[in-house]
Specification:
By secondary structure, this protein is α/β, with parallel strands linked by helices. The protein has a single domain, classed as Nucleotidyltransferase, domain 5. It is built from five helices and five strands; from the N terminus they run E-E-E-H-E-H-E-H-H-H. Strands 3-2-1-4-5 form a five-stranded mixed beta sheet, with helices on both faces.
């Protein structure tokens, strides 16, 4: 991610422990979600009706004071083609503003399907249109935060497994023969 603002944190610089906020950006409403300190589970928190710079700043600072997050994951609206739009640029500007007013680092998460998934879940739950509207943004924030957590945990698990694979190769040795390194297998293994 490049930016004209050199103070903008790069993606994935967020701590791997501690509470994170998920933010579903909108010009009228912002959905807010939160995860646990172990970053395994996320929960919908607020549907915030935007009111202007001063009240918005106060709202987000209060959320930060209450939950003490270590960072934020902000949804980035991207077209199905992968291209960014004007909404993407708005979300990027919002992220920088939010980071400046809260003092928190942030990372972006592709949110292409989060609102759609939220709408499907609420329709399946037989919620009325008004009930869905009252919940959609915070549920979308929860979905994008959970997606971020799962993808990051998957990457972490893969990188943690890589050194073990490397050790297995080292144990076999250069000859490729486990028996030559004192690693005895079954009789079937040594016959092959």
């Amino acid at each position: 991610m490049t930016s004209e603002n050199t103070d903008e944190p790069l993606p994935n610089e967020l701590s791997h422990t501690g509470v994170l906020l998920g933010i579903d950006y909108g010009t009228k409403r912002v959905g807010v979600a939160v995860c646990d300190r172990d970053q395994k589970f996320s929960s919908p928190l607020y549907n915030y009706q935007r009111q202007g710079v001063q009240p918005d700043t106060r709202f987000f600072r209060n959320v930060v004071a209450e939950y003490r997050p270590v960072g934020m994951v902000i949804g980035l609206p991207i077209h199905l083609s992968g291209d960014e739009s004007e909404k993407s640029r708005e979300a990027r500007r919002f992220a920088i503003w939010l980071s400046q007013c809260t003092g928190l680092p942030f990372s972006f998460q592709d949110e292409r399907f989060s609102s759609f998934q939220a709408e499907q879940l609420m329709t399946a739950a037989a919620l009325t249109k008004k009930q869905r509207k009252d919940r959609i943004d915070k549920l979308a924030a929860q979905i994008l935060l959970q997606t971020f957590l799962e993808s990051r945990n998957e990457i972490r698990a893969k990188s943690a497994a890589a050194p073990a694979d490397a050790l297995d190769v080292l144990e076999v040795g250069e000859s490729g023969d486990p028996a030559a390194n004192g690693i005895a297998g079954s009789e079937e293994d040594t016959e092959r």
